[in-house]
Amino acid sequence: MFLVNNAGWCPVQSIMDMKIEDYNKAFDLDVKVVVDLTIKALPYIIECKGSIINLSSVGATHPGVNLSMYVGAKAAIENFTRVWALELADKGVRVNAIAPGAIRTNIWDVPGLTKEESKKHEDSIAKTIPFKRFGTPEEVANVAYFLASDEASYVSGSVYAVDGGQGAL
User: Fold this and answer.
1) What are the per-10-residue average pLDDT scores of the chain (169 residues)?
2) How far, in Å, CA of 75 to CA of 166, rounded?
3) Assuming Cys at both sites, which of 21, 23, 71, 152 could form a disulfide with 59, CB separation 3.0 to 4.6 Å?
4) Residues β-bridged to residue 51
5) Half-sphere exposure (Cβ direction) of 53: Cα atoms closer than 13 Å
6) Is 23 a catalytic residue?
């Protein structure tokens, strides 16, 4: 048995424009839900010596302007991952995280942009990625599959970047 934790909400705004409600929403969705789900599933994970896989973001270690709530929450997820790996090791439970970069999902669909504007926006982001392209959900899933498998039986407390090299910048 394995548990994949992912939640995410990314307010794009300066701390100067933030309200405490923005913090509450970001940390409720990006952190509190992950902790709550883990606590509830933990007896089953321990019973079968399963694996927990949390989803972080390349932003946790490579933050961007106007993303403080999102990258702060994802940094918390990475720290929970390392602490839980230590706490659960003697129970035979592995805990790891995946830190995706720009992955082709609907999060990049900016409302109000024409197809041409949207393509231009995506191209400008892709230029900043060493691989010069977005990743795919399948590329993230492949790492999750590995981490949940017996081939990763000695892997715990790690954060795997699936970011086309963004984290190396």
Assistant:
1) 56 88 90 95 96 95 89 95 98 98 82 84 93 96 97 98 94
2) 16
3) 71
4) 2, 94
5) 21
6) no
